[in-house]
Amino acid sequence: MQYFEILKSDSGSKARTGVIHTAHGDVQTPAFLPIGTKGAVKSITSEELKFWGADIILANTYHLWQRPGDALIYKAGGLHKFMNWKGPIFTDSGGFQVFSLAKMRKVGEGGVVFQFDLDGRTEILSPEKSVDIQANLGSDIALILDDFPGYPFEYERSKESIALTKRWAERAIREYQKIVIDGDPINPGQKLWGIVQGASFPDLREQSAKDMVALGFDGFAIGGVAVGEPHKEMMKAVESSTPFLPESAPKHLLGVGTPFDIVQAAARGCDTFDCVIPTREARHGRLYVNQRQETSDKKQIDGYATIDIRLEKYKEDFTSVDNNCDCYLCLNHSKSYLRHLFATGEPLSIRLATMHNLKFYLNLMQKIRTAIQYDYFGDMVRNYQEVVGSK
RNA sequence: GCAGGGAUGGUAGAGCGGUCAAUUACACCUGACUGUAAAUCAGGCGCCUUUCGGCUACGUAGGUUCGAAUCCUACUCCCUGCA
Fold first, then answer.
1. Active site includes A132?
2. Which of A105, A294, A346, A352 lies 20 to 30 angstroms, CA to CA, from A207?
C-alpha cells in the first residue's frame, strides 16, 4: 500500500483529499493536528480527541526529553501507550524550540547547545539526538532537526539556515536508518520527514525543497513560517516550496494557523497542519464561531469570527456560543455559563472552551475535505475568511 | 445619652500638609496569542485635549496654610463599647 494515497485532486487548485497510512492508523487529509506538546492536549483526553474526529496529534521532542525523559517513555512502551492514544502521533524535532528559546541557546554545526528551562542543565540537541529521542517516543511521523532564524526574514541568514538544515538532514537520515531500520525501535513503522526552510525567498525555498527531495524523505514539512510574518509572506513561502516537492508526498505546514491560513494553504497543496491557536486561545477566552456574511450583492458566504467570552456583555446571554456547532459546550451550555466559569476561574472553563475550538478546527477540516470531494472547494477558498466587526 | 473609630475613584482598601488625579487588588475595557517556557502577556481605566496642558475631585459646609484627601470647627451618616 502506498504511504500516501490521494483520493481526489481539486480541479481549480493544488488541494487534494487523501489518506496517510501510518503504523497506528489512517489520517484523512487535509487534517489538523491538535497539539499535545508534553504528551497531552491540554485538558482533553485521548478518548475525547478520537471521538471528535482527530486522526492524529502532535507532541514535542524537546519537552518530553526534558520531562519525563524519552528513556522513561521507552520503558512505558512508547508514547502511544504512555498517554493511551492509539492513533498516529507526529513529533516535532525540537527545531522550533531552537528558535523560541533563543535566549538560552547557541546554534552550531553539531547542534544546539542550550540550557533546559526547568533545571538549567546544559544539553546538546543534535540531529542524531533528536532522531534518537523520537525513536524512543515511537511516533509515527518524526521530523528532522532544522534551523530557522525567525522573523523578519533575512536572505543571508536564511541561506545559511537551509544549508545547515540540509547537513543536519543528512545526519538525521543516517541515524534514522541506524535505529529505525536496522535497530529495534519502539515503532518500526516510524517515518522521518524532511523540513523545507528558506523564509519567503523563492530561490531558497526551491533549493531547500530540492535538497530534501534528494534525500528521499517519505513526507515533507514546510517550516519557518507563522513567526509573525504577514499572511501573504506565509503563502509565498508555501507557493515557493510545494512545486518542488513530489505531488505524491504528504506535506505538512508547521505551526499554521488561523482558519483562513489553513484554507489558503490547503489550496496551495498542504495536507496537514498543526497550531496552538485553538487550544491556547481557548484558555484565554477566545472562541471561534461560524459566521455567515452578506456581501454587497446580498450573497451569503461562509466565514467565522471570534468572541471573547469573558466580556460582560455575555453575562446574561443564555444562548449557545455557536448554534451551528455540535460540540459538547454548544449542545449543553450557554455563553452566560461559560463566562461565569471563566470569571470564577473554574478549570471547566478551559476544558469547555478547548473542546469547542478544537471541534471548530476539526469541523473546518471536514468542510475542506467535503468541499474538495464535491468540487466546490474553489468557492470555499474565495469566500472563507474572518468576519471582522460582527462579534 | 456617653466614649471611641470611620466616611477616598465601579467595589474593597492604602495614603495622613506639598513629589496625589491619588499605591494596590478586584471589576471593567483594548490589544496580543500561528512546529505551546502561555489557564499567559501588554496597555487603558475622573472629565476635556493628539501632545503640552487645563478642569473637577477624597461625606457636607466652613476655617488654618504659600499649599489640604491629609490639620481645625460644625453638621450628616455609619460602626464599636458603655448605659
1. no
2. A105
User: What confidence score (pLDDT) does residue A102 get?
Assistant: 60
For the CA of A376 and the C1' of B72, the distance in angstroms is: 84
Considering A10, A55, A70, A92, which one is annotated as catalytic? A92
Percent of chain A whose pLDDT exceeds 90: 87
Nearest nucleotide to the CA of A285, by C1', is B39
What is the distance of C-alpha A301 from the center of its chain?
A: 27
Of A305 and A97, the structure prediction assigns the larger pLDDT to A305
Instruction: Give the 3-state secondary structure percentages of chain A, helix then strand then coil, rounded to 5.
Output: 40, 20, 35
What percentage of chain A has pLDDT greater than the value 70?
Answer: 98
What region does A260 belong to: left with phi over 0, alpha with psi -120 to 50, or beta?
alpha
Candidate from A21-25, A87-91, A146-150, A344-348 with smallest mean pLDDT = A146-150
Burial of A77 (0-12, 13-18, 19+ CB in 10 A): exposed
In this prediction, residue A103 carries a pLDDT of 63
pTM: 0.94
Q: How many CB atoms lie within 10 A of CB A376?
A: 13
CA of A206 to C1' of B23 (A): 59
Distance (Å, whole) CA A18 – CA A262: 16
Backbone angles phi, psi at A200, to 5 degrees: -110, 30
DSSP state of A180: I
- Residue A334 neighbours by CB distance under 10 Å: 17
Straight-line distance from CA A186 to C1' B3, in Å? 83
Superfamily of domain A31-275: Queuine tRNA-ribosyltransferase-like (3.20.20.105)
Q: Where are the domains of chain A?
A: 31-275, 280-386
Residue A211 falls in the annotated catalytic set? no
**Cis before residue A68, ω within 30 degrees of 0?**
yes
Answer yes or no: are the C-beta atoms of A220 and A192 closer than 8 Å.
no
